[in-house]
C-alpha cells in the first residue's frame, strides 16, 4: 500500500508539472500571437523579433507545430513587406525551414499550405517577369492543396482572391473574380472556428480592406 501511495504521488506530481508547463506554453503563445495584430509588431524589426521568439518556443516544445508555423508566418510577412529586395530570399529561406518543421509535426495541414503559397509569392515578387513561371505554379498548387485539406479555411479564399486582384488581367488576373472570393472568404471567416485556440485566425480585417478596394475599383 505504501509503495502504491508513493507511486501515486509521483504520477500526480508529474501530471501537475505537465499541466503547469502546458498552461505556461499556452499563455506565452497567446500573448505573442495577439501582439502580431499590433502595427508596432508588424514592422521588419518587430517581425524578426517575433520570428526568433516563436522559433525558440518551437525548439523548447519540440512537439507543437504552431510555434514554427508562426515563426514562418513572421518571416514570410517580413519578406512580403520589406522594401529591400536583397533580403527577400533569405527571409523566405528561413520561413521555408520553419514551415518544414511545422509540417513534419502536422502533415496535410491547410494552414501550413497557405504559408507555403505565401513563401512562393514572396520569391516571385522580387522579379515577376523572370520568376513567375517558376514560383507562380508553386503558389497556386499550395493553395489548391490548402483548399483540399480544409475547404472551410477562409485564408484559402482570401489568398486566391489576393492573387487574382494583384495579377494583371492579361496574365489571368480579375478584380471581379477577386471580389467574389473576398466575399466568400468573409462568409467563411464568420463561420470559422479554430480546432485549437492557438491555431491561426488572422486575415479577416485584411480581407475587408481588399474587398473595399475591389468594390471601389482601386
TrEMBL record:
Q: Which domain of life is it from?
A: Bacteria
Task: Give the signal peptide as a residue range, or say none if absent.
Answer: 1-20
| InterPro entries to which the protein is assigned, alphabetical | TPR-like_helical_dom_sf
- By what name is this protein known? Tetratricopeptide repeat protein
Q: Which Gene3D superfamilies match?
A: Tetratricopeptide repeat domain
SUPFAM superfamilies linked to this entry: TPR-like
Cite the entry's keywords alphabetically. Answer: Signal
